[in-house]
Amino acid sequence: MKAKAILRNQIKDRKNVSSYIFYGSDQEFVYQAARDFATGLGVSDFDIVEIEPEARDQNSKDEIKIKAVRELIRQINLTPGHGEKKLAIIKQADKLNSEAANTLLKTLEEPPTSSTIILLSSDLKLISTIISRCQVVRFADRTGTADQTIIRSFLALGEQHLKKIFATAEKLSTDPDLDSHLETLLVTFRDQLIKSPTPSNLEKIKAVFEARRNLRITNNRRLVLENLLLKFIYG
C-alpha cells in the first residue's frame, strides 16, 4: 500500500500512532505529506511545531541541537490551542546530534497523549532505538517513471487531435493506479499555481478535484477522463 493511502486509512479509522518517520529522497514532497497529514488529523497551523538543523557559523556543521529538541518537547506538552492535538515536525531528523537524539528518545518512549511527532529524513540514517519507536513510512518520488509518463501525456494534450484525446482517456480508464496518477498531477498543477497564480492553473486544479470526486461515484471512468481532458484544452 502506498504511503498516502496508509495515512489516509489511519486518519479515517482514527488509529494514528504517536510517532512517525516519513522518509524519501524528495524532501519537499515528504514535508508536504506531513503537513497534509496534520490537516487530516485536524491539527491547526497554530498547534504545529517545527525544528530543523542550524549552524552557528561557517565553521559549524548543520545539526539539530538539544536546545531545539527541548523547546519542541516543551511545546508539544502544552495544551492544544485550537483543537485536540499538537503535532511536531522534525526536518532532516538524521542530523540530530547525539544529545538531541537521546533527549528525543525519552519522549518517544513516553509520548504526550495529545501529540504526534513526525521525523522527516531522506533515508533511515537514524539511531535504531528511535526507528524502533516510530512507524516508518516510505515515500516514493512524486514523479516516478509511470507518473512522469502520465504527466507528459496530460500536458501535451493541447497539441493533439481529439481522437488522440479520446484514445488517451480510454487507455487511462483501465489503469489501476489512475487515482495515484491524478494525485501526482494535482501536485504538479499546484506547483505550477505557486509559480504562476493564474486563473488557468487554478481551473486545472479544480478540474482534477472534480474528476477524482466523480470517479468515486460513477463506473464510467472513460467519460470522466474525457471531460477532464477536454477541460484542460478548451476550458
From TrEMBL:
It holds the Pfam family DNA_pol3_delta2. One of its GO terms (biological process) is DNA-templated DNA replication. Transmembrane segments: none annotated. InterPro entries: DNA_Rep/Repair_Clamp_Loader (IPR050238), P-loop_NTPase (IPR027417). This is DNA polymerase III subunit delta. It comes from Candidatus Berkelbacteria bacterium CG1_02_42_45.
